[in-house]
Amino acid sequence: MSSRGRFGPLVGAIDEGTSSARFLVFVADTGEVLTFHQIDINQICPYEGWVEQDPLEILHSTIECINVTVDNLKKLDINPNDIVATGITNQRETTIVWDPVTGEPLYNAIVWLDIRTKETVNKLIEQSREKNAECIKHLCGLPISTYFSGTKLRWLIDNVPRVAEAVNRKRCLFGTVDSWLIWNLTGGPNGGLHITDVTNASRTMLMNIKTLQWDDSLCKFFSIPMWVLPKIKSCSEIYGYIAQSALIGVPISGCLGDQQSALVGQMCFNQGQAKNTYGTGCFLLYNTGKSVVFSQHGLLTTVGYKMGSNAPTIYALEGSIAIAGAAVRWLRDNLHILDNVADSRRLAQRAHPTGEVIFVPAFSGLYAPYWRKDARSVICGLTEETSKEHIIRAVLEAVCYQTRDILEAMNQDCGIPLTKLLVDGGMTANDFVMQQQADLCGIPVIRPSMTETTALGAAMAAGSAEGINVWNMSDVFTVPCDTFLPSIPEDERDYKYSRWKMGIERSLGWDMETEKLTNRKYSKLGIQETITRSLPGVFYLFTTGVVLIVAKTRMQQ
């Protein structure tokens, strides 16, 4: 397939993330972005720990992004017919259920970092023979957690009558965001395709990590009927054709979860290569080749990519961090000590380095390598000299410390320390964060000037699919990069990391202890209200040795 346009064949990429939807157009020969359009997606937080989005807003925003981008091409005197294929990359684990007859969502999308399923997780662990969250890890590569889609789907069936009734009537389809978009874009109620790819399926706790099929025993464990699940496909093949928007007739031929798409976009095709993406959360993926590696140190086993139905499956170890850029927005939106996220670099650099403050961002508990849903955010080391600049610096450093936690675990699992870290995502624009990352991990941090690596991965998958064949995956683009080298001695690095570990210890068990206190009234102190009834954003201050702040807040992202 070829195109006569001056740029040659073009490939589109839908990038539907946690905070926005985008559509980008790439030149297949060079990977250059010609144009794009982006729309922010609202988040709905009805209760503490609940994070939802409107599936129709996700769909309509995606279609609008496509239409505006096509108009942009026309204004640039580029023929939109030069777009020969489109790929999709998406926020993973976010769960949507809908009626296949009407196309209407049965409930809001439950976003990946939502933690309402804590009790569901506890019940599932209790019903397992091992009474352990890792009891299904040998099958799906994942622990039982609020993070993944299976527990969200189970919660919907158990707690939303409309969903339960739809399941009983066999009028319910389940999917992550990729499935929802593909089903609608290929026709919806009029013949829409109910599919997903292996990377998104590997985040549900329902797919067998070795067979790449829905696992009967896992579905029985979660009491989920297999007929609600989409068909699993590879990451690169023609799935179907767009039936609405300005790209009617264009094939959809690539699909990867956003972190796996960034792995491809960073061209980590060799075993032992790794990338770290800094967004709402932070996700480090390490290519383990064709080997399924089960972590002994809190990491996840996941599918990296499978570029065609007959192509080999490439696996990865993943370290998932729930809170990265979200913590900076928390400073702006909840604490109001930042007017603009971009100001964080300048203000953090103004903080005197001797005023050491440690912040552990555990709004939704801690993900890898700890997997402690009872953890809550703490700030340690406050003195009367502490300023807002110190707090801002601590928030940025927390992202870097969490990344070192993941690298330490990967080193223990794989035995081969990384010699460099490839990075991408919104926070990488902050030079302070990148330098701190190099300093605290002790390895060079490589930031490509091409920032759209997540969308690029989806475009590469789509353009290289059989029947499209406009993108040669063996051609690795030479991309200019910025390199940040470690600038502090090893003993200082290890001292700082030991202080971080002290902060981690102080963050554990808070949700559990708060629950115990909920029904206890402090009559001796004259306190009639329980701690958990305090307003969101109120801090509880303890001054036993180290000054400690525990933040229990409703996150607005």
Give a nutshell description of this structure:
It contains 16 helices and 23 strands. The chain has helices at 55-75, 118-127, 137-140, 149-159, 161-168, 177-185, 198-201, 216-222, 258-265, 325-333, 344-350, 388-414, 431-441, 453-463, 490-507, 510-517; strands spanning 10-16, 20-27, 33-40, 52-53, 83-90, 95-98, 109-110, 173-176, 195-197, 231-233, 236-241, 251-257, 274-278, 282-289, 300-305, 314-321, 358-360, 377-380, 421-424, 445-448, 481-484, 539-544, 546-551. α4 (149-159) crosses α5 (161-168) and α11 (344-350) crosses α12 (388-414).
Blueprint of the fold:
Layout: E1 10-16, E2 20-27, E3 33-40, E4 52-53, H1 55-75, E5 83-90, E6 95-98, E7 109-110, H2 118-127, H3 137-140, H4 149-159, H5 161-168, E8 173-176, H6 177-185, E9 195-197, H7 198-201, H8 216-222, E10 231-233, E11 236-241, E12 251-257, H9 258-265, E13 274-278, E14 282-289, E15 300-305, E16 314-321, H10 325-333, H11 344-350, E17 358-360, E18 377-380, H12 388-414, E19 421-424, H13 431-441, E20 445-448, H14 453-463, E21 481-484, H15 490-507, H16 510-517, E22 539-544, E23 546-551
Parallel strand pairs: 1-5, 5-12, 9-10, 13-19, 19-20
Antiparallel strand pairs: 1-2, 2-3, 4-7, 6-8, 11-12, 13-14, 14-16, 15-16, 17-18, 18-23, 20-21, 22-23
Helix pairs in contact: 1-6, 4-5, 9-14, 10-12, 11-12, 12-13
